[in-house]
């Protein structure tokens, strides 16, 4: 029998602070609950039917007695709260040593090597919002041709450039140069190309031609294991970049949540077997980091409205898992990711009712479950919940 599985990551949609949240300055963070409270309730009927409101109390999302999905939440064991650690842990490879961050900007030794390698000076080199820094430095960049370098609370080296000053292909080359420098002690998780357009009069706007240049995972991931076993592995949106293209056999673009879900549904209509992994990025990029709970709520409603297009093309034996990689609470004073539990909704269409999977002790339970689903021997320090789903029983951790 052909096997197909789906992982849909709702980027930044956390469900409550982890026990160690205070160490990260994230006390009180609860992305989903706090957004719902600020906007007066979230109308999410399809996620409600799956059992989202059974995970935590969410204004506007009911607890249902007959959820379609098995539900729970997962605790991150990795050090950090960023995209890379979250996705790698979902794929079975936690990161216990945090990636380096640069709250004061990058040291001279890094900047000097980069400037020497590219043959031109830089602007910036401090933590900043991506939209604010192009507003502040965009015109100087256009006049001088110098790329804008910045970082954030995450382990990232970001390079912003106007597409008419440094074309995207050249910007990607600059990122490759930076990636070659940023290893070892300064091995940031991601180097990110941030193209933008506009002018001093109309203002500057980032374009969809972003690219991430990640470190490769330190051990084989779920994607490696599946592709080595001969299964197609399709990454939608930024998934291939997060894994440094490793273990990916197919790639589909996705500039926003809508396109990402529609691309995923289209793949499922044609694919006979394999895994498709998609990341709905808008929650985090457009709203979480910009402290915009109203926009966050609208994005949740849009994804909920699109879910039937995805669920409608699932076969009875398919396995679908909806989760997140971290929190990004737009209601707090912070504009960074938040250290939170993430939701877990897992189901196969043939199962009539879901039950409580409890609190999973690591995101890697997803990797263990999908490995077992494909009949492969799990290589991860995690516990599969496949038997709970297929057998219909409650999890031992419930």
Radius of gyration: 21 Å
Hey, roughly how much beta strand do the residues contain? Answer: 15-25%
* Mean residue pLDDT: 95
**Percent helix:** 25-40%
Give the terminus-to-terminus CA distance. Answer: 31 Å
Strand order of the largest sheet: 10-9-11-1-12-13-2-14
Number of helical elements:
14
Reported for the largest beta sheet, the result is: 8 strands, mixed
How are helices and strands ordered from N to C? Answer: EHHHEHHEHEEHEEEHEHEHEHHEEEHH
Number of DSSP strand runs:
14
| Poorly predicted segments | 392-398
What does this structure look like?
The protein is of the alpha/beta class. It is 33% helix and 19% strand. The strands form 2 sheets. An 8-stranded mixed β-sheet has the order 10-9-11-1-12-13-2-14, with helices on both faces. Helix 10 packs parallel to helix 12 (293-311) and helix 11 packs antiparallel against helix 12 (293-311). The chain starts with a strand and ends in a 7-residue tail after the last helix. The relative contact order is 0.22.
Q: Which features would summarize this protein structure in a list?
A:
eight-stranded mixed β-sheet; about 400 residues
């Amino acid at each position: 029998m052909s096997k197909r599985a789906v992982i849909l990551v709702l980027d930044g949609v956390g469900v409550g602070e982890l026990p160690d949240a205070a160490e990260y300055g994230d006390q009180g963070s609860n992305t989903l609950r706090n957004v719902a409270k600020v906007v007066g309730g979230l109308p999410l009927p399809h996620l409600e039917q799956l059992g989202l409101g059974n995970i935590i109390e969410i204004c506007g999302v009911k607890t249902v007695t007959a959820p379609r999905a098995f539900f729970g939440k997962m605790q991150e064991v990795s050090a950090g709260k960023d995209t890379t650690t979250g996705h790698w842990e979902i794929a079975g490879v936690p990161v216990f040593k945090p990636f380096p961050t640069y709250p004061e900007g990058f040291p001279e030794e890094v900047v000097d090597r980069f400037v020497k390698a590219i043959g031109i000076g830089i602007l910036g080199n401090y933590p900043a919002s991506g939209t604010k820094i192009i507003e502040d430095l965009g015109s100087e960049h256009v006049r001088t041709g110098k790329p804008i370098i910045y970082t954030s609370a995450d382990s990232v080296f970001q390079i912003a450039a106007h597409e008419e000053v440094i074309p995207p292909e050249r910007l990607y080359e600059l990122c490759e140069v930076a990636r070659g420098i940023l290893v070892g002690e300064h091995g940031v998780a991601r180097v990110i190309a941030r193209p933008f357009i506009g002018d001093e009069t109309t203002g500057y706007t980032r374009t969809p031609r972003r690219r991430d240049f990640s470190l490769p995972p330190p051990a084989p991931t779920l994607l490696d294991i599946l592709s080595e076993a001969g299964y197609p592995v399709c990454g939608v949106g930024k998934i291939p970049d997060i894994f440094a293209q490793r273990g990916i056999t197919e790639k589909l673009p996705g500039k926003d949540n809508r396109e990402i879900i529609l691309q995923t549904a289209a793949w499922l209509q044609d694919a006979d077997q394999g895994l498709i992994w998609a990341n709905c990025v808008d929650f985090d990029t457009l709203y979480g980091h910009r402290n915009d709970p109203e926009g966050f709520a609208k994005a949740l409603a849009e994804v909920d409205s699109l879910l039937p297009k995805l669920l409608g093309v699932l076969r009875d034996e398919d396995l679908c898992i909806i989760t997140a990689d971290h929190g990004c609470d737009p209601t707090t004073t912070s504009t960074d990711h938040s250290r939170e539990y993430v939701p877990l909704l897992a189901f196969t269409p043939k199962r009539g009712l879901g039950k409580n999977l409890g609190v999973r002790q690591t995101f890697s339970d997803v990797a263990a479950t999908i490995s077992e689903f494909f009949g492969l021997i799990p290589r991860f320090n995690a516990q599969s919940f496949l038997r709970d789903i297929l057998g219909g029983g409650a999890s031992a951790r419930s």
